[in-house]
Design a protein that fits this description.
Layout (H helix, E strand, L loop, with lengths): L11 H14 L4 E8 L5 E7 L11 E6 L6 H16 L4 H9 L1 E5 L4 H9 L49 H11 L2 E2 L2 E2 L1 E9 L3 E4 L14 H18 L2 E4 H4 L6 H9 L2 E7 L17 H6 L2 H11 L2
Parallel strand pairs: 3-4, 3-7, 7-10, 8-9
Antiparallel strand pairs: 1-2, 2-4, 5-6, 8-10
The structure holds N~2~-sulfamoyl-L-arginine, calcium ion (CA) (2 copies) and zinc ion (ZN).
The site of one calcium ion has 6 residues, from loops.
Function: Carboxypeptidase that possesses the specificities of both mammalian Cpase A and B. Thus shows broad substrate specificity, being able to cleave Cbz-Gly-Leu, Cbz-Gly-Val, Cbz-Gly-Phe, Cbz-Gly-Lys and Bz-Gly-Arg in vitro.
Organism: Saccharopolyspora rhizosphaerae
Catalytic activity: Releases a C-terminal residue, which may be hydrophobic or positively charged
């Protein structure tokens, strides 16, 4: 489990318990479903938050997903923080306004096998991938131009191994099935999304597979909207806004698929810290969780607003 000083982090069972408690405490506005199962058979829970939560209403839907990468535990806390803020503070008029007019989907751990393995021994393993064979990088396994562009590896030992084919990881496939299931009457209901990672303090937008701003699937107008919203969010949290390929080129990441396949206004946030420490950067002490998750409150609110634009 998490080492001394980091007990505030939630392991998989604690994360599930937290979601169950949220639903038990707020049954009118919170419910839990499953996106599917991980390679080792763990459920990948999805929390829904909205008024009339049992009804699929005609309200813009927003997705927050976390922990595609095993060692990025701060992101799981980010998703749990969002869940708590929109349920525990429902009597705050601004929160109520958001909850009543959106359907918010939260996936605290896309990669529960990897995150469990990372902490199981009591010493951090520095693990990134899932636990399928030598491990697939879940964020290189999504099916938009999978493996196209030198932004992933075909070596199963590599940290960015893309898998044997698109969607070969059960975790990416489960997320695909869930997001595809939000197409209702031919229209994708999820309008905006953030995929949380650590670290570097960045707000990133598509595409990742090319350094071109404008390309097949991205007009200048669309690019400009990403840059505008991304920059506005970054002004609230102090992160650096940029196209994801400005960091480095990736192929098969979730961002490119969410936009390329579904035209979801999708961002990747790289959370605290900004730099330094190599592997240590993935393991900030538990006492930064509150500050570094609340830091994104205003950006999350902007994304919820944009989902209705
Ligand atoms: O490499 C990744 O999957 C993400 N960074 S991380 O350090 N958390 O592994 C970044 C994905 C965003 N896409 C691009 N940078 N193209
Ligand atoms: Ca509703
Ligand atoms: Ca709906
Ligand atoms: Zn990551």
């Amino acid at each position: 489990d998490f080492p001394p000083g980091d007990e505030a982090y939630h392991n998989y069972d604690e994360m599930v318990a937290e979601l169950d408690k949220t639903v038990a405490d707020h049954p009118d506005i919170a419910s839990k479903v499953s996106a599917g199962k991980s390679f080792e058979g763990r459920d990948i829970p999805v929390l829904k938050i909205s008024d009339n939560v049992a009804t699929d209403e005609d309200e813009p839907e927003v997705l927050f997903d976390c922990n595609q990468h095993a060692r990025e535990h701060l992101t799981t806390e980010m998703c749990l923080h969002i869940a708590q803020r929109f349920t525990d503070n429902y009597d705050d008029p601004a929160v109520k306004e958001s909850v009543d007019n959106r359907e918010i989907w939260i996936v605290p751990s896309v990669n529960p096998d990897g995150s469990t393995y990372d902490v199981a021994s009591g010493e951090y393993q520095g693990w990134r991938k899932n636990r399928q064979d030598q491990g697939t990088d879940v964020n290189r396994n999504w099916g938009y131009l999978w493996g196209c562009c030198g932004g992933s590896s075909d070596d199963p030992a590599d940290e960015t191994y893309r898998g044997t084919e698109a969607w070969s990881s059960p975790e990416a496939a489960a997320m695909r099935d869930f997001i595809d299931s939000r197409v209702v009457g031919g229209t994708q209901q999820i309008k905006a999304a953030v995929d949380f990672h650590t670290y570097s303090e960045l707000v990133l937008w598509p595409f990742g597979h090319t350094s071109d701003d404008v390309t097949e699937g991205m007009t200048q107008e669309e690019y400009d909207r990403f840059a505008k919203v991304g920059t506005e969010m970054a002004q609230t949290n102090g992160y650096t806004p940029q196209q994801s390929s400005d960091l480095y080129v990736t192929d098969g990441d979730s961002l490119d698929w969410m936009w390329g396949q579904h035209k979801i206004l999708a961002f990747t946030f790289e959370m605290y810290p900004s730099s330094g420490g190599g592997l240590d950067g993935f393991y900030p002490p538990g006492d930064v969780i509150e500050r570094e998750t609340a830091r994104n409150d205003a950006a999350v609110d902007i994304l919820l607003r944009e989902a209705g634009a």
